[in-house]
């Protein structure tokens, strides 16, 4: 691996006492990988008790309170403002960085044109395995990589927010994460990293957003996120989030990856599930869930359009 002299600031944002064990594992997994000049920055989102506990537990980290509005976007922005590294990496508080994660991100920024990088996000299912009905094409529902993503290192529109990094100078050029979008507490919305990456590419077409499937994190998926209720809710709110991104950045950029996903990845999943149902009946079930997931996402997109008084533009 090429030696790259870039310092890394890893930002982990947390908000809830009940996530402490996961949060602690995330911090420890990063701390083991930091080298001279790197740092761990912890941002606590409007929870004074958790803030004090984190400061006591991680004396070597820079532990600060979210200086902005409640929610992940401003928590991340606070992390950017607090950190000092050449590259700012973001890890979810319920994810564990696999060995080599920090080194892989450091290497990703060797080319000067790389502005954003992301890695593989593997699901760590509570119970040891995913539900039989869960289609791998919907890994994003639980914040993980999904079937349809590239299998080699290449450019993408945006990485998954659970494991991504940004060259520090980029924030000075395009700003931070928009607080008009993104997760607040447990409400299953998102897409702040999508909107951010679209802004990056629009600012300078020479900037690259890269995805490296050979670096990875393991993202915990609790039982509560392994239900059909959560699946449908997450898809619905993803549709709402995608509509907001489209309003902010236009439908061409806002839905560029989704068109390929809807036209190629999902139909392939349905065909595969139906064709294999003679040997494995669960394939037919997964095919049905694909249709439900797509329908729920489209519904969220349409509802958000109507609520904002905008003419609906099909996400496909």
Describe the fold and architecture.
With 316 residues, the protein is an alpha/beta fold. It has a domain at 8-225: Spore Coat Polysaccharide Biosynthesis Protein SpsA, Chain A (Alpha-Beta Complex). 42% of the residues lie in helices and 19% in strands. The protein contains ten helices and nine strands. It has helices spanning 20-31, 48-57, 72-82, 101-108, 168-174, 192-203, 228-249, 251-254, 256-275, 282-307, and strands at residues 8-14, 39-44, 62-65, 87-92, 95-97, 114-125, 154-155, 163-167, 208-221. Strands 1, 2, 3, 4, 5, 6, 7, 8 and 9 form a nine-stranded mixed β-sheet that branches. α1 (20-31) links the parallel β1 (8-14) and β2. The radius of gyration is 19 Å and the shape is globular. The model is unreliable at 311-316 (pLDDT under 50).
Describe how the helices and strands are arranged.
Blueprint: E1 8-14, H1 20-31, E2 39-44, H2 48-57, E3 62-65, H3 72-82, E4 87-92, E5 95-97, H4 101-108, E6 114-125, E7 154-155, E8 163-167, H5 168-174, H6 192-203, E9 208-221, H7 228-249, H8 251-254, H9 256-275, H10 282-307
Parallel strand pairs: 1-2, 1-4, 2-3, 6-9
Antiparallel strand pairs: 4-8, 5-9, 6-8, 7-9
Helix pairs in contact: 7-10, 9-10
């Amino acid at each position: 691996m090429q030696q790259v002299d870039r310092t890394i600031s890893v930002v982990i944002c947390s908000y809830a006492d009940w996530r402490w064990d996961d949060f602690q594992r995330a911090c420890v997994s990063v701390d083991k990988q930091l080298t001279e000049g790197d740092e761990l920055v912890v941002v606590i989102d409007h929870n004074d008790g958790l803030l004090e506990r984190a400061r006591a537990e991680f004396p070597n980290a820079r532990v600060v309170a979210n200086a902005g509005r409640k929610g992940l976007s401003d928590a991340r922005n606070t992390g950017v403002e607090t950190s000092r590294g050449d590259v700012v990496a973001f890890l979810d508080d319920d994810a564990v960085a696999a060995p080599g994660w920090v080194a892989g991100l450091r290497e990703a920024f060797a080319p000067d044109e790389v502005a954003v990088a992301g890695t593989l996000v593997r699901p760590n299912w509570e119970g040891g395995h995913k539900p039989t009905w869960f289609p791998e094409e919907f890994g994003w529902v639980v914040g993980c990589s999904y079937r349809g993503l590239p299998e080699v290192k290449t450019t993408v529109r945006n990485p998954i927010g659970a494991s991504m990094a940004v060259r520090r100078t980029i924030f000075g050029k395009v700003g931070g994460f928009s607080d008009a979008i993104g997760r607040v507490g447990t409400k299953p919305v998102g897409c702040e990293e999508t909107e951010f990456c679209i802004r990056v590419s629009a600012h300078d077409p020479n900037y690259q957003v890269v995805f490296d499937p050979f670096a990875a994190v393991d993202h915990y998926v609790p039982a509560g996120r392994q239900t059909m209720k959560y699946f449908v809710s997450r898809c619905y709110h993803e549709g709402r989030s995608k509509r907001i991104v489209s309003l902010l950045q236009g439908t061409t950029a806002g839905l560029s990856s989704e068109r390929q996903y809807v036209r190629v990845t999902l139909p392939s999943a349905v065909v595969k599930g139906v064709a294999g149902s003679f040997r494995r009946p669960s394939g037919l079930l997964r095919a049905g869930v694909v249709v439900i997931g797509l329908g729920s996402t489209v519904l969220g997109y349409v509802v958000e359009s109507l609520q904002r008084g905008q003419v609906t533009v099909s996400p496909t």
